[in-house]
Design goal:
Layout: H1 4-28, H2 35-38, H3 40-44, H4 65-69, H5 74-80, H6 83-90, H7 92-124, H8 157-192, E1 201-205, H9 215-226, E2 231-238, H10 241-266, E3 273-275, E4 285-287, H11 288-312, E5 317-325, H12 328-335, E6 347-350, H13 366-386, H14 388-397, H15 400-406, H16 411-414, H17 417-425, H18 427-437, H19 440-449, H20 455-486, H21 488-493, H22 499-506, H23 511-531, H24 533-546, H25 550-556, H26 564-584, H27 589-609, H28 622-646, H29 653-675, H30 677-680, H31 684-697, H32 703-706
Antiparallel strand pairs: 1-5, 1-6, 2-5, 3-4
Amino acid sequence: MATLEDIGVAAAINSLTAFAFLVAFAILRLQPINDRVYFPKWYLKGIRNNPLSSGALSKFVNLDFKMYIRFLNWMPAALRMPEPELIEHAGLDSAVFIRIYLLGLKIFVPITILTLVVLVPVNWTGKTLELKQFKNLSFSNIDKLSISNIPTGSKRFWAHLVMSYVCSFWTFYVLYMEYKIIATMRLGFLASEGRRPDQFTVLVRNVPPDPDESVSEHIEHFFCVNHPDHYLTHQVVYNAVKLAKLVEKKNGFQNWLVYYQNKYERNPTKKPTTKTGFWGLWGSRVDAIDYYTAEIGKLSEEEDAERERVICDSKAIVPAAFVSFKTRWGAAVCAQTQQSRNPTIWLTDWAPEPRDVFWDNLAIPYVEITIRRLLMAVGVFFLTFFFMIPIAFVQSLANIEGIEKVLPFLRPLIEKDVVKAVIQGFLPGIALKIFLILLPKILMTMSKIEGFTSLSSLERRSAQKYHLFILVNVFLGSVVTGTALQQLHQFIEAPTGDFAKTIGMSVPMKATFFITYIMVDGWSGVAAEILRLVPLVMFHLKNTFLVKTEQDREQAMDPGCLDFATSEPRIQFYFLLGLVYSVVTPILLPFIVAFFAFAFMVFRHQIINVYDQKYESGASFWPDVHRRIIIGLIIAQILHMGLLGASGADKSTTPCLIAQPILTIWFHIFCKGRFESAFVRFPLQEAMVKDTLEKATEPNLNLKTYLHDAYVHPVFKGTKLDKPIAIDEEENNPLVPTKRSSRQGSKHNSDVRSEAHL
């Protein structure tokens, strides 16, 4: 059982590690050679150029020693940019993501102060753990600051009950105000942002087959009939997987060709050569420029043939399309209504912005999606609960006794004070962190199998799975397996009447493990994020050995982005710990406050200078953030109720706590009804205002030209696609042309009536 001294050693280790990372970052960021690693966002925006230098050495090392004196000035600089400017610079998604850390500070700073002042003295003076009947129970001085130190049946538990309500109601207030602020920010962002293709476009899936019309003709016919005044054009979706591979291979060969051409221009006396085998490692040696020119010619012919096949082959067109409308109002009506009496066909939803589209999943049928999601739900269940096995094993070893039993020959080394302190205060968090590194890619793959059509929805779905995993394995798994195995002998020896009492005292004792985890992951981990050690090393390796062209250099400068799928569930874990231990072991809260404050500053700096987001969803993830905090709050309330009951509190206290989860569920339903629509629907009033304003300011706008290739598959960019000509809006023909033959009563009759009047 980790003591205060062990926690102090762990705090010193992690504080020094974090400080070392920060000092290393502050020095490395000043060197001109690293400028593209630590300020890539400004390069991508075209605002920053290579630092000026006046000598050979100064190209690599900053010789201005005055700047080293101010090496920590990045901290106030990260906080200086106002939020409106941050939204304009980095987007609403990034600005709102940072507010999750700010939300943690708003919730836990007042709670920390209040619980330390009220509950710590109440717990410390309980003196229950010093009684003789608990002499066999492992505990430390930290446990004396927890609820475990309160005597059975004591009136002191009323202080914990009152503080539980205070924490819940304060969390309600902060969550409500933040939801209101974010909803207002989102609506303001949507109202003020410039014209974007997704504002006029709807994604249509599960287009039913028609024997007389192609997919493209069927889509045009359907929307000309059902949206005659607003339909503008559409873009069908092609299955172009093979074509995409050819294009990627050709681009790689073009980079090699440019590289060898540049090399020859620098040294015209010697023509460059290469081997024709894998990566140029073996095979016959040939003229590099001639070889790559010929290979590019062959690939160009294959690419043209494959492109022609995809365009002409009806089987290459999937039953989905991006349908664009003349107005935002028309797109909003279509996206937010049911198009057919059969709810499984003509499925419409707002189109993701073009860079947010995940093209591989657009062709999956409705029934198949349902089956896939059922199978993945089963897979997530087994993954979550089978991962408990290694977690339990690690937790059983993450104490001195467990290691000595498994590895008895290490006992002389482990019994040394320094080694013992490191194992108790450092090893558990590191072991758990290693397990969690393996998980995100598995969960993202499972989300892709489920058939989501945008990168943002994939990340939100993966975050949901990751949150469930952390909740079950990291929190519940650590508490149940770690505490139960440590106190197993006491549980067996305890009389039947004292069993619940022992449970009530043992569960809070896991706070020491979570304190070490917060320091490892929340302090050292965040500091390592700003150092960007892996991107730094990879950039210089690529720049030295692999960079052949300016395009390669830009790719070597890859700034990365906020990984919502893993970052947000990790933040939610800290919310959960804070809410659970606010009443149980308040001494844990300062560590959580330190994490939120440090992470807020670090990630604000990264968003300003480093990360370049792949897409912009307008903070559509906030309802998920709110819901998961509510889940954490309900779990905390249930655990508080169970702990008070198991600890022998006054029988009147437990019924008083039953109302808390009910109030929390009511609060969530209220907030969902009040704010969530702003994140899933676009008000027709706002759409009409933007349309009217645009018509007044740009009366000659050719919207069809603007949307011409917005949703063309990336491999078709810059090429011509045979697109059907939409019905002339000035034509007064009351009938919509169709190739469908008359087969009254046939099972192939379409939902669309060709004789429908405009």
